[in-house]
Amino acid sequence: MKVSTKVEYGMLALTDIALYSDNGSSVSAPDIAERQNISQKYLEQILTHLKQAGLIRAQKGLRGGYALTRPADAIRLSEILNALDTGILEPMNGTGKDGEHSLRDAVNTCLWAKINRAMLEFAESKTLSEFMQECREQMAGDWDLYII
Amino acid sequence: MKVSTKVEYGMLALTDIALYSDNGSSVSAPDIAERQNISQKYLEQILTHLKQAGLIRAQKGLRGGYALTRPADAIRLSEILNALDTGILEPMNGTGKDGEHSLRDAVNTCLWAKINRAMLEFAESKTLSEFMQECREQMAGDWDLYII
DNA sequence: TAATTACCTACTATGTCAATAGGCAATTTG
DNA sequence: CAAATTGCCTATTGACATAGTAGGTAATTA
Hints:
Number of helices of chain A: 7
Shape of chain A: globular
CATH class of chain A: Mainly Alpha
CATH architecture of chain A: Orthogonal Bundle
Oligomer: homodimer
Number of domains of chain A: 1
Order of helices and strands of chain A: EHHHEEHEHHH
Largest interface: A-B, 50 and 50 residues
Strand content of chain A: 5-15%
Structural class of chain A: mainly alpha
Helix content of chain A: 55-70%
CATH topology of chain A: Arc Repressor Mutant, subunit A
């Protein structure tokens, strides 16, 4: 199971914004794209999703960009994953059409419901700032190499 | 994030085998395919994977088929997911090439490692038979509808 | 006014997934 | 032995989502 770049870039962008925003100032898409070495145009599309989900607000024009709507310690990872359409795992053919009681439906419902719950319980328990802090601790000295 | 039919069918096939095997007798691919209404040829490919992973053994010829190599209460869900190449989530570009210390790598490593751990802890804690039992309890009366 | 930025829409190439198909090898049963 | 059944191996294909590209418009600021 591969994680889409959409989710990867979305997480990365939020982290970048949290790191490089000064006092709620905006961080522009071109800046993020250059720092993280990802396609600017594609990033814009992803940021639009995050905006519509209410996680960031946008400011057009010169000196514009994006900023978090809430402080990083008030954003849960589960919100981010949900915003990027990745909150839950589900089988291809949505379970239980026509209410037919197939073994297939039973297995699907039971299994993925439980696995999703395990994932969500973790993602709901962690805030963006907590996650960044843990990241920082794990990377130890290397962290300073890419934080200006 | 969608779960592939490969995983879905694989789980389903193992459950089917566990249910319809009598005293370690074999269950044939054609039978499974018909009961669960999935493509026989495609199912064969998946069963081959499960065989190579050591979860089932195969018997060729008339009256042949597949059987669990261990009782269902000695098979953990994590083994099944791993056998179907779905044990872990990982970003598209495998993290950390060239040992460059990018923020991207840091976020990827830290995030997916934790989420995978949450999933695996669950999957390792459950055996196939426990899962089937919980499924049964949840479905209550409906269970008997498709168990001959 | 000019530059910068977000935003919107359409298009496209690539790759993976989910099969389909055909044939071969092994085994059992009559 | 013969025939049917079953697993196994490999190649091919159609559909679809992903990951990006591209171009233009609207808002904002210096």
